[in-house]
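Long-time lurker, finally posting.

We've been working with Glucose-6-phosphate isomerase (Methylogaea oryzae) and I want a structural starting point before designing mutants. I don't trust myself to interpret raw outputs, so I'm hoping someone here can both generate the structure tokens and explain anything notable. Sequence follows.
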Amino acid sequence: MPQATSLPAWHALQEHHKEISQQHMRDWFEADPQRFDKFSLHFEDILFDYSKNLINETTVSLLLDLARQAGLAEKIGAMYSGQKINTTENRAVLHIALRNRSNRPIYLDGRDVMPDVNRVLEQMRQFSEEVRIGIRRGYTGKRIRDVVNIGIGGSDLGPYTAVTALTPYIKSDFRPHFVSNVDESELLDTLDQCDQETTLFLVASKTFTTQETMINAHSARQWFLAKARDEGAISKHFVAISTNAKLVQEFGIDPDNMFEFWDWVGGRYSLCSAIGLSVALAIGMERFEKILDGAHAVDEHFRTAPFERNIPVLMALLGIWYNNFFGAESHAVLPYDHHLAHLPTYLQQADMESNGKGVDLQGKPVGHQTGPILWGQPGANGQHAFYQLIHQGTKLIPCDFLAGAQSHRHLGAHHPTLMSNFFAQPEALMRGRTLEQARAELKKEGYSGEQLEKLAHAKTFPGNRPTNSFLYRKLTPRTLGSLIALYEHKIFTQGAIWNINSYDQMGVELGKQLANTIQTDMAKDAPTTGHDCSTNGLINYYRQLL
Ligand SMILES: O=P(O)(O)OC[C@H]1O[C@H](O)[C@H](O)[C@@H](O)[C@@H]1O
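Top reply, 14 upvotes:
Generated this for you. Predicted structure of Glucose-6-phosphate isomerase:
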């Protein structure tokens, strides 16, 4: 596959960019009352409004050409048919199989993976129901009240984001916890809230070798045994979620208490696998399966919708437009739905670990920018922190705004107020405020002369800042599954066009290796000398502080 930069559509977009960058969205909206109809789409109850972007019909058509010329259709086909598109690790990428709610088989090396998927779903169903209704209890016969998921990265962020998102559905006498960091503070603060007799630990790790998770799991085991004093009781309080049966057994977890997943599920794409067990325990398996339904519906949309009406494809192309032609370095995700507070963090791993790559599929340096810096936090909080820079700073930051029309609980004017901000911010970012408008407003307020002039410039907003708005009825399990799948396929599409492998994460390794050698050095009595002088200096000063 040729580099994206050598495709004819790339050159055409470079030329087109010159023309678009001279124009203002405000004028387009004034000239064309149909703009919203042209540039918005519905998927079930989710409205995707992309009309407030720096695009016209030619832009969209050139971006679609780019997708076609980059072989996107073939690449989607390759993923769905189980080809080993994770070429560096020689693995297929089949998270779509985890939520394949159709009767269609999905083959990997000539074998249908669906019986395995369904077997584990059945195991999750049985286990979560037994815990929730109290058939499975702790070693003293008490009901399980606290569930602690111990995992990091993909074995933490997905279920943590989902459990937070679906807080209104959590069983009232049940408390889910997530421990990821190796910093003992997190584990100890959590254990302080728990009782050994009523706590269930889910040790979640695809590889079962991740340092942070293993240390936390061993410490949790010790904490448990300090009270239970019976190794036999472990089977009632520890389960594992992993692809590595051997290491799970070595840790002392009964194979019957292991929930399997497979090397064709990337960690950051594993929410719909057994990694979602904490979600199933918290909200019930039936509702967990609604997440799968929502994700599957989007999988089908992505697979079958023509590119011009394919939401993840359009999300990806708009991202590429800003990333590669406007030089935007970051992308903000701004949920006006407090339950989605962890979505930006979740998407940081999904997007930045997938597309933070500098070589292409042939192992050659890419000749263009790849994945953006993804960041964000819930509105309205962000408005009082970093929106100033988005409105008037010197950087272009495309933003996604997300909101549910209905909230789960009602209190006075809270929700309408939140929603008014959700509508106002993208409008203000698009429209801005001209110098003339600022002058007129100040004049009305009684300003004049030099002071008016100075203030008018400070109060001018350039506008023309691009946003997407996602508006759905209510944050249900199904909607959550759909939103996550939309972003997953956006990431896939961008990786496909950039011709990179979105499914390995070699960049995480070096720091891990160095940490291991440094820990050995730290254990020695002599001052550390084996590193650069800065690292030596830091380690040696740390010793003095102990
Ligand atoms: O699930 P695990 O094998 O414990 O891995 C947990 C995480 O750690 C690694 O460092 C990877 O960068 C992540 O992609 C992964 O999700």
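Before you design anything, note these points.
The mean pLDDT is 97.
The chain has 22 helices and 13 strands.
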